[in-house]
Amino acid sequence: MTRLDPDPHAAARPPTAGPPGADMRLGPDQLLALVDNTSAVIYMRDLDGRYMLVNREYERLFDVRRERIVGLTDHDLFPSEIADHFRANDLQAAASGGPVQIEEIAPGEDGPRTYITVKFPLLDNDGRAYAVAGISTDITDRKRAEDQVQRLNSELERRVRERTAELEASTRELDAFAYSVSHDLRAPLRSIEGFSQALIEEYADRLDEDGHEYLNRLQVNVGRMAQMIDDLLDLSRATRTELRREPVDLGAIAREVVKELRDVDPHRDVDVAIADARGGTGDPHLLRLVLQNLLANAWKFTSHRDRATIEFGERTDGRERIFFVRDNGAGFDMRYVHKLFDPFQRLHATAEFEGSGVGLAIVQRIIRRHGGRIWAEGAPDRGATFSFSITDPGRPR
Q1: CA distance 35 to 40
Q2: Domains in the chain, CATH or no CATH each
Q3: Could you tell me which residues are beta bridge partners of residue 101?
Q4: Which of 67, 167, 218, 291 could link 10 by a cystine bridge, Cβ 3.0 to 4.6 Å?
Q5: For the segment 55-96, what is each residue's pLDDT rounded down to a tens digit?
Q6: What is the number of alpha carbons within 13 Å of residue 328 lying toward its C-beta?
Q7: Cβ-contact 376, 387 below 8 angstroms
Q8: Residues 6+ apart with CB under 8 A from 333
Protein backbone atom coordinates (compact mmCIF):
# COMPACT_ATOMS: atom_id res chain seq x y z
CA MET A 1 0.00 0.00 0.00
CA THR A 2 0.99 3.66 -0.36
CA ARG A 3 2.59 5.13 2.73
CA LEU A 4 1.19 8.54 3.65
CA ASP A 5 3.00 11.25 5.64
CA PRO A 6 1.19 12.33 8.81
CA ASP A 7 -0.59 15.71 8.83
CA PRO A 8 -1.21 16.75 12.44
CA HIS A 9 -3.46 19.66 11.32
CA ALA A 10 -6.09 17.42 9.67
CA ALA A 11 -7.65 15.66 12.66
CA ALA A 12 -10.67 13.48 11.96
CA ARG A 13 -13.48 12.69 14.32
CA PRO A 14 -16.42 10.33 14.02
CA PRO A 15 -19.78 11.88 13.21
CA THR A 16 -20.97 13.83 16.26
CA ALA A 17 -23.83 12.42 18.24
CA GLY A 18 -24.32 15.23 20.80
CA PRO A 19 -23.31 15.38 24.46
CA PRO A 20 -24.05 12.45 26.78
CA GLY A 21 -27.52 12.66 28.21
CA ALA A 22 -29.23 11.15 31.15
CA ASP A 23 -29.51 7.84 29.27
CA MET A 24 -25.72 7.40 29.59
CA ARG A 25 -25.08 7.16 25.84
CA LEU A 26 -21.39 7.28 24.88
CA GLY A 27 -20.01 10.47 23.42
CA PRO A 28 -17.66 10.65 20.40
CA ASP A 29 -14.48 10.69 22.52
CA GLN A 30 -15.63 7.64 24.46
CA LEU A 31 -16.60 5.80 21.26
CA LEU A 32 -13.20 6.59 19.73
CA ALA A 33 -11.45 5.36 22.88
CA LEU A 34 -13.48 2.16 22.68
CA VAL A 35 -12.56 1.36 19.09
CA ASP A 36 -8.96 2.41 19.65
CA ASN A 37 -8.45 -0.07 22.49
CA THR A 38 -9.33 -3.26 20.69
CA SER A 39 -7.12 -5.66 18.77
CA ALA A 40 -9.58 -5.80 15.87
CA VAL A 41 -9.27 -3.55 12.82
CA ILE A 42 -12.25 -1.14 12.75
CA TYR A 43 -13.15 1.37 10.02
CA MET A 44 -16.04 3.24 8.40
CA ARG A 45 -16.44 4.09 4.70
CA ASP A 46 -19.23 6.01 2.98
CA LEU A 47 -21.15 4.54 0.06
CA ASP A 48 -18.63 6.04 -2.37
CA GLY A 49 -15.89 4.04 -0.62
CA ARG A 50 -14.23 7.05 1.08
CA TYR A 51 -12.83 6.48 4.57
CA MET A 52 -14.63 8.25 7.41
CA LEU A 53 -12.83 6.65 10.35
CA VAL A 54 -10.12 4.11 11.20
CA ASN A 55 -8.90 2.96 14.61
CA ARG A 56 -5.35 2.72 15.96
CA GLU A 57 -5.01 -0.97 14.99
CA TYR A 58 -5.71 -0.01 11.39
CA GLU A 59 -3.06 2.75 11.65
CA ARG A 60 -0.50 0.32 13.12
CA LEU A 61 -1.22 -2.50 10.73
CA PHE A 62 -1.14 -0.48 7.51
CA ASP A 63 1.35 2.18 8.64
CA VAL A 64 -0.93 5.13 7.96
CA ARG A 65 -2.29 7.97 10.15
CA ARG A 66 -6.04 8.45 10.35
CA GLU A 67 -5.63 12.17 9.63
CA ARG A 68 -4.33 11.30 6.15
CA ILE A 69 -6.66 8.43 5.27
CA VAL A 70 -10.00 10.21 5.71
CA GLY A 71 -11.49 10.92 2.27
CA LEU A 72 -9.33 8.34 0.49
CA THR A 73 -10.60 5.04 -0.94
CA ASP A 74 -9.16 1.54 -0.92
CA HIS A 75 -8.01 2.11 -4.52
CA ASP A 76 -5.70 4.81 -3.14
CA LEU A 77 -4.19 2.39 -0.64
CA PHE A 78 -4.21 -1.13 -2.08
CA PRO A 79 -3.60 -2.92 -5.39
CA SER A 80 -6.63 -2.78 -7.71
CA GLU A 81 -7.57 -6.44 -7.32
CA ILE A 82 -7.68 -6.21 -3.52
CA ALA A 83 -9.43 -2.83 -3.57
CA ASP A 84 -12.10 -4.14 -5.97
CA HIS A 85 -12.76 -7.04 -3.60
CA PHE A 86 -13.12 -4.72 -0.58
CA ARG A 87 -15.46 -2.44 -2.54
CA ALA A 88 -17.67 -5.33 -3.64
CA ASN A 89 -17.96 -6.53 -0.03
CA ASP A 90 -18.93 -3.02 1.13
CA LEU A 91 -21.71 -2.81 -1.46
CA GLN A 92 -22.94 -6.28 -0.50
CA ALA A 93 -23.19 -5.22 3.16
CA ALA A 94 -24.96 -1.96 2.25
CA ALA A 95 -27.49 -3.80 0.09
CA SER A 96 -28.12 -6.58 2.63
CA GLY A 97 -29.45 -4.24 5.30
CA GLY A 98 -27.70 -6.29 7.99
CA PRO A 99 -24.31 -7.74 8.95
CA VAL A 100 -22.41 -10.02 6.56
CA GLN A 101 -19.31 -12.04 7.32
CA ILE A 102 -16.62 -12.58 4.73
CA GLU A 103 -13.00 -13.60 4.54
CA GLU A 104 -10.67 -10.92 3.19
CA ILE A 105 -6.97 -10.81 2.35
CA ALA A 106 -4.81 -7.68 2.71
CA PRO A 107 -1.07 -7.15 2.23
CA GLY A 108 1.23 -7.26 5.26
CA GLU A 109 4.92 -6.92 6.07
CA ASP A 110 5.39 -10.71 6.07
CA GLY A 111 3.14 -11.41 3.10
CA PRO A 112 -0.64 -11.59 2.59
CA ARG A 113 -2.69 -11.68 5.77
CA THR A 114 -6.16 -13.15 6.17
CA TYR A 115 -9.02 -11.53 8.10
CA ILE A 116 -12.50 -12.55 9.12
CA THR A 117 -14.52 -9.38 8.55
CA VAL A 118 -18.00 -8.47 9.69
CA LYS A 119 -19.47 -5.59 7.70
CA PHE A 120 -22.79 -3.85 8.38
CA PRO A 121 -24.57 -0.74 7.05
CA LEU A 122 -25.05 2.45 9.06
CA LEU A 123 -28.61 3.77 8.55
CA ASP A 124 -29.98 7.32 8.68
CA ASN A 125 -33.27 8.32 10.27
CA ASP A 126 -35.13 7.18 7.16
CA GLY A 127 -33.54 3.71 7.33
CA ARG A 128 -31.31 4.29 4.33
CA ALA A 129 -27.66 3.19 4.38
CA TYR A 130 -25.20 6.07 4.28
CA ALA A 131 -21.99 4.22 5.26
CA VAL A 132 -20.54 0.79 5.96
CA ALA A 133 -18.63 -0.17 9.10
CA GLY A 134 -16.20 -3.06 9.21
CA ILE A 135 -14.62 -5.08 12.02
CA SER A 136 -11.76 -7.31 10.87
CA THR A 137 -9.99 -9.95 12.98
CA ASP A 138 -6.58 -11.25 11.86
CA ILE A 139 -6.67 -15.05 11.49
CA THR A 140 -3.47 -15.32 9.46
CA ASP A 141 -1.60 -17.48 11.98
CA ARG A 142 -4.51 -19.88 12.20
CA LYS A 143 -4.89 -20.04 8.41
CA ARG A 144 -1.17 -20.61 7.94
CA ALA A 145 -1.24 -23.37 10.55
CA GLU A 146 -4.24 -24.97 8.81
CA ASP A 147 -2.49 -24.72 5.44
CA GLN A 148 0.63 -26.29 6.94
CA VAL A 149 -1.42 -29.13 8.41
CA GLN A 150 -3.14 -29.63 5.07
CA ARG A 151 0.21 -29.70 3.26
CA LEU A 152 1.58 -32.19 5.78
CA ASN A 153 -1.53 -34.33 5.46
CA SER A 154 -1.31 -34.25 1.68
CA GLU A 155 2.36 -35.21 1.85
CA LEU A 156 1.60 -37.98 4.32
CA GLU A 157 -1.23 -39.29 2.14
CA ARG A 158 1.08 -39.27 -0.86
CA ARG A 159 3.74 -41.19 1.03
CA VAL A 160 1.17 -43.65 2.36
CA ARG A 161 -0.13 -44.23 -1.18
CA GLU A 162 3.38 -44.79 -2.48
CA ARG A 163 4.28 -47.08 0.41
CA THR A 164 1.03 -49.00 0.05
CA ALA A 165 1.66 -49.46 -3.66
CA GLU A 166 5.19 -50.71 -2.91
CA LEU A 167 3.91 -53.14 -0.28
CA GLU A 168 1.15 -54.40 -2.55
CA ALA A 169 3.64 -54.94 -5.36
CA SER A 170 6.02 -56.71 -2.97
CA THR A 171 3.20 -58.89 -1.63
CA ARG A 172 2.11 -59.83 -5.14
CA GLU A 173 5.67 -60.77 -6.02
CA LEU A 174 6.06 -62.86 -2.88
CA ASP A 175 2.72 -64.58 -3.44
CA ALA A 176 3.59 -65.29 -7.07
CA PHE A 177 6.95 -66.67 -5.96
CA ALA A 178 5.33 -68.86 -3.30
CA TYR A 179 2.76 -70.12 -5.79
CA SER A 180 5.44 -70.94 -8.37
CA VAL A 181 7.75 -72.63 -5.87
CA SER A 182 4.89 -74.66 -4.41
CA HIS A 183 3.95 -76.00 -7.82
CA ASP A 184 7.58 -76.70 -8.70
CA LEU A 185 8.08 -78.64 -5.45
CA ARG A 186 5.22 -81.03 -6.14
CA ALA A 187 6.97 -82.93 -8.96
CA PRO A 188 10.09 -84.02 -7.01
CA LEU A 189 7.94 -84.70 -3.95
CA ARG A 190 5.68 -87.04 -5.92
CA SER A 191 8.79 -88.77 -7.24
CA ILE A 192 10.16 -89.33 -3.71
CA GLU A 193 6.79 -90.63 -2.56
CA GLY A 194 6.51 -92.95 -5.57
CA PHE A 195 9.98 -94.47 -5.24
CA SER A 196 9.64 -94.95 -1.49
CA GLN A 197 6.29 -96.72 -2.00
CA ALA A 198 7.91 -98.92 -4.68
CA LEU A 199 10.64 -99.89 -2.23
CA ILE A 200 8.04 -100.87 0.38
CA GLU A 201 5.98 -102.90 -2.09
CA GLU A 202 8.66 -104.55 -4.24
CA TYR A 203 11.64 -104.88 -1.91
CA ALA A 204 9.94 -105.54 1.40
CA ASP A 205 11.58 -108.96 1.77
CA ARG A 206 15.05 -107.48 1.29
CA LEU A 207 14.68 -104.76 3.94
CA ASP A 208 15.30 -105.33 7.62
CA GLU A 209 13.28 -103.67 10.40
CA ASP A 210 15.39 -100.50 10.34
CA GLY A 211 14.93 -100.19 6.56
CA HIS A 212 11.14 -100.37 6.92
CA GLU A 213 11.28 -97.75 9.71
CA TYR A 214 13.34 -95.40 7.58
CA LEU A 215 10.93 -95.70 4.66
CA ASN A 216 7.94 -95.10 6.93
CA ARG A 217 9.57 -91.97 8.33
CA LEU A 218 10.34 -90.83 4.77
CA GLN A 219 6.69 -91.16 3.74
CA VAL A 220 5.48 -89.37 6.87
CA ASN A 221 7.75 -86.44 6.11
CA VAL A 222 6.73 -86.45 2.44
CA GLY A 223 3.11 -86.18 3.60
CA ARG A 224 4.04 -83.38 5.97
CA MET A 225 5.86 -81.54 3.17
CA ALA A 226 2.86 -81.93 0.86
CA GLN A 227 0.63 -80.45 3.57
CA MET A 228 3.00 -77.50 3.99
CA ILE A 229 2.86 -76.85 0.25
CA ASP A 230 -0.95 -76.89 0.36
CA ASP A 231 -0.88 -74.51 3.32
CA LEU A 232 1.51 -72.21 1.49
CA LEU A 233 -0.85 -72.10 -1.48
CA ASP A 234 -3.79 -71.38 0.81
CA LEU A 235 -1.81 -68.53 2.36
CA SER A 236 -1.16 -67.10 -1.09
CA ARG A 237 -4.80 -67.47 -2.16
CA ALA A 238 -5.98 -65.70 0.99
CA THR A 239 -4.26 -62.57 -0.37
CA ARG A 240 -4.82 -62.96 -4.12
CA THR A 241 -8.43 -64.15 -4.22
CA GLU A 242 -10.89 -61.44 -5.22
CA LEU A 243 -12.93 -60.28 -2.22
CA ARG A 244 -16.71 -60.62 -2.70
CA ARG A 245 -19.01 -59.03 -0.12
CA GLU A 246 -22.47 -60.35 0.63
CA PRO A 247 -24.57 -61.06 3.75
CA VAL A 248 -22.92 -63.79 5.82
CA ASP A 249 -24.34 -65.89 8.67
CA LEU A 250 -21.26 -66.82 10.69
CA GLY A 251 -23.30 -68.85 13.16
CA ALA A 252 -24.63 -71.09 10.38
CA ILE A 253 -21.13 -71.50 8.92
CA ALA A 254 -19.76 -72.43 12.37
CA ARG A 255 -22.42 -75.12 12.77
CA GLU A 256 -21.51 -76.58 9.36
CA VAL A 257 -17.80 -76.63 10.24
CA VAL A 258 -18.44 -78.36 13.60
CA LYS A 259 -20.57 -80.99 11.87
CA GLU A 260 -17.70 -81.70 9.48
CA LEU A 261 -15.29 -82.03 12.43
CA ARG A 262 -17.66 -84.48 14.16
CA ASP A 263 -18.01 -86.53 10.96
CA VAL A 264 -14.22 -86.85 10.63
CA ASP A 265 -13.74 -87.61 14.34
CA PRO A 266 -16.99 -89.24 15.52
CA HIS A 267 -15.48 -90.69 18.70
CA ARG A 268 -14.70 -87.29 20.22
CA ASP A 269 -17.07 -86.07 22.94
CA VAL A 270 -16.93 -82.29 22.62
CA ASP A 271 -19.42 -79.86 24.13
CA VAL A 272 -19.89 -77.17 21.47
CA ALA A 273 -22.00 -74.01 21.92
CA ILE A 274 -22.67 -71.84 18.85
CA ALA A 275 -24.48 -68.51 19.11
CA ASP A 276 -26.68 -67.04 16.39
CA ALA A 277 -24.19 -64.57 14.91
CA ARG A 278 -24.93 -62.93 11.59
CA GLY A 279 -21.69 -61.29 10.54
CA GLY A 280 -22.90 -58.46 8.36
CA THR A 281 -21.24 -58.58 4.94
CA GLY A 282 -18.12 -60.38 3.82
CA ASP A 283 -16.73 -63.03 1.52
CA PRO A 284 -18.49 -66.30 2.44
CA HIS A 285 -15.68 -68.53 1.17
CA LEU A 286 -12.90 -66.66 2.93
CA LEU A 287 -14.86 -66.25 6.21
CA ARG A 288 -15.63 -69.97 6.13
CA LEU A 289 -11.88 -70.54 5.88
CA VAL A 290 -11.46 -68.36 9.00
CA LEU A 291 -13.92 -70.44 11.03
CA GLN A 292 -12.53 -73.71 9.66
CA ASN A 293 -9.08 -72.82 10.95
CA LEU A 294 -10.19 -71.40 14.31
CA LEU A 295 -12.66 -74.21 15.11
CA ALA A 296 -10.30 -76.91 13.84
CA ASN A 297 -7.59 -75.51 16.12
CA ALA A 298 -9.98 -75.52 19.08
CA TRP A 299 -10.99 -79.10 18.22
CA LYS A 300 -7.32 -80.14 17.95
CA PHE A 301 -6.02 -78.44 21.08
CA THR A 302 -8.83 -79.84 23.25
CA SER A 303 -8.09 -83.41 22.17
CA HIS A 304 -6.34 -84.20 25.50
CA ARG A 305 -9.32 -83.04 27.57
CA ASP A 306 -11.73 -85.52 29.12
CA ARG A 307 -14.43 -82.88 28.93
CA ALA A 308 -13.68 -80.64 25.96
CA THR A 309 -15.67 -77.43 25.46
CA ILE A 310 -15.70 -75.09 22.47
CA GLU A 311 -17.75 -71.92 22.12
CA PHE A 312 -18.41 -69.63 19.17
CA GLY A 313 -20.07 -66.36 20.14
CA GLU A 314 -20.47 -62.66 19.61
CA ARG A 315 -20.23 -59.58 21.80
CA THR A 316 -20.33 -55.82 21.30
CA ASP A 317 -17.54 -53.43 22.28
CA GLY A 318 -18.89 -49.93 21.74
CA ARG A 319 -19.99 -49.94 18.11
CA GLU A 320 -17.72 -52.83 17.15
CA ARG A 321 -19.11 -56.35 16.81
CA ILE A 322 -16.59 -58.92 17.95
CA PHE A 323 -16.78 -62.66 17.22
CA PHE A 324 -14.80 -65.21 19.18
CA VAL A 325 -13.86 -68.89 19.39
CA ARG A 326 -13.09 -70.05 22.93
CA ASP A 327 -11.88 -73.45 24.14
CA ASN A 328 -10.59 -75.11 27.30
CA GLY A 329 -7.66 -76.80 25.59
CA ALA A 330 -3.88 -76.60 25.82
CA GLY A 331 -3.75 -72.80 25.65
CA PHE A 332 -0.46 -70.96 25.23
CA ASP A 333 1.97 -68.65 27.00
CA MET A 334 1.08 -64.99 26.35
CA ARG A 335 4.79 -64.17 26.17
CA TYR A 336 4.75 -65.73 22.71
CA VAL A 337 1.40 -64.39 21.49
CA HIS A 338 3.20 -62.24 18.88
CA LYS A 339 4.32 -65.43 17.10
CA LEU A 340 0.85 -66.93 16.70
CA PHE A 341 0.01 -65.29 13.39
CA ASP A 342 3.42 -65.70 11.73
CA PRO A 343 3.58 -68.43 9.04
CA PHE A 344 5.12 -71.73 10.18
CA GLN A 345 5.43 -70.55 13.80
CA ARG A 346 4.27 -73.15 16.33
CA LEU A 347 3.98 -72.94 20.11
CA HIS A 348 3.48 -76.69 20.59
CA ALA A 349 5.60 -79.64 19.48
CA THR A 350 4.53 -81.44 16.29
CA ALA A 351 4.59 -84.74 18.17
CA GLU A 352 1.98 -83.36 20.59
CA PHE A 353 -0.28 -81.57 18.09
CA GLU A 354 -0.02 -81.89 14.31
CA GLY A 355 0.00 -78.88 12.01
CA SER A 356 2.23 -76.60 9.97
CA GLY A 357 1.55 -73.29 11.75
CA VAL A 358 0.09 -71.60 8.66
CA GLY A 359 -3.61 -71.63 9.57
CA LEU A 360 -3.58 -68.57 11.83
CA ALA A 361 -1.51 -66.61 9.30
CA ILE A 362 -4.23 -67.33 6.73
CA VAL A 363 -6.91 -66.23 9.20
CA GLN A 364 -5.11 -62.96 9.91
CA ARG A 365 -4.75 -62.12 6.22
CA ILE A 366 -8.43 -62.74 5.56
CA ILE A 367 -9.56 -60.66 8.53
CA ARG A 368 -7.30 -57.78 7.50
CA ARG A 369 -8.71 -57.90 3.97
CA HIS A 370 -12.14 -57.47 5.55
CA GLY A 371 -10.91 -54.32 7.34
CA GLY A 372 -10.94 -56.05 10.75
CA ARG A 373 -8.50 -57.22 13.36
CA ILE A 374 -7.77 -60.46 15.20
CA TRP A 375 -6.12 -61.14 18.54
CA ALA A 376 -5.71 -63.98 21.02
CA GLU A 377 -5.69 -64.53 24.76
CA GLY A 378 -4.72 -67.67 26.59
CA ALA A 379 -2.79 -69.39 29.34
CA PRO A 380 -0.92 -72.73 29.39
CA ASP A 381 -3.30 -75.63 30.01
CA ARG A 382 -6.21 -73.21 30.56
CA GLY A 383 -7.52 -72.75 27.03
CA ALA A 384 -7.49 -69.93 24.52
CA THR A 385 -9.82 -67.34 23.02
CA PHE A 386 -9.41 -65.99 19.49
CA SER A 387 -11.40 -62.81 18.82
CA PHE A 388 -11.90 -61.01 15.52
CA SER A 389 -13.93 -58.25 13.91
CA ILE A 390 -14.87 -57.49 10.31
CA THR A 391 -15.87 -54.15 8.87
CA ASP A 392 -19.39 -53.86 7.47
CA PRO A 393 -19.40 -51.03 4.86
CA GLY A 394 -23.17 -50.63 5.26
CA ARG A 395 -23.13 -50.31 9.04
CA PRO A 396 -22.52 -46.90 10.66
CA ARG A 397 -19.48 -46.87 12.91
Answers
A1: 8
A2: 28-138 (3.30.450.20), 140-240 (1.10.287), 244-397 (3.30.565.10)
A3: 118
A4: 67
A5: 999 998 888 888 888 999 999 999 999 999 999 999 999 998
A6: 11
A7: yes
A8: 347, 378, 379, 380
